[in-house]
Write a sequence for this structure.
């Protein structure tokens, strides 16, 4: 589950809402600022006044007190609710992935069992076909029995191919769920 991109995405969303909550908390606090303002003033030639052309340096202070606290409380509640929603979605996703993983591994085991079964049946059918062919050559068996066994052999080959394809599909599903390659 650590490699799954959906879970990683949800965890990152949760972290983003935690940061948003921190920002909302800090925005609701009073702020204080101190600074200096500087202005270059050129001298005037049309009149003569005291301190003509002297640059200006002005100290400044700023105080911001948030009076409407409901806005910030609402932002905090929204962040909390979003994080709860993401946590529930994260839990649901993990449960869903666990169920999908169990189902995919069951499909793989079933396909593996079928591959083994049809491999054995195919081997037995080939041996039986050889015996029937020899019996037919010695005129002890009829041709229909040989044809029926050839059909059975083809059926087992087809089922073996289907079982291998189901096994490959199960492996691909497991790789998708694990977000890694399987050896």
């Amino acid at each position: 589950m650590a490699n799954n991109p959906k879970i990683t995405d949800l965890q990152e969303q949760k972290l983003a809402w935690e940061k948003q909550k921190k920002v909302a908390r800090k925005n609701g606090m009073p702020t204080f600022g101190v600074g200096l303002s500087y202005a270059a003033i050129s001298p005037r030639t049309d009149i003569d006044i005291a301190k003509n052309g002297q640059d200006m340096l002005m100290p400044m202070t700023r105080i911001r007190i948030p009076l409407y606290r409901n806005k910030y409380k609402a932002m905090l509640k929204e962040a909390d609710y979003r994080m709860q929603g993401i946590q529930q979605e994260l839990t649901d996703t993990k449960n869903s992935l666990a169920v999908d993983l169990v189902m995919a591994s069951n499909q793989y085991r079933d396909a593996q069992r079928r591959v083994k079964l049809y491999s054995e049946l195919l081997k037995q059918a080939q041996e039986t076909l050889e015996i029937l062919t020899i019996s037919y050559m010695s005129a002890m068996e009829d041709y229909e029995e040989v044809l029926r066994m050839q059909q059975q052999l083809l059926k087992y080959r087809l089922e073996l191919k289907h079982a291998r394809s189901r096994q490959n599909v199960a492996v691909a599903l497991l790789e998708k769920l694990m977000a890694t390659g399987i050896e």
Summary: The first strand starts at residue 31 and ends at 39.
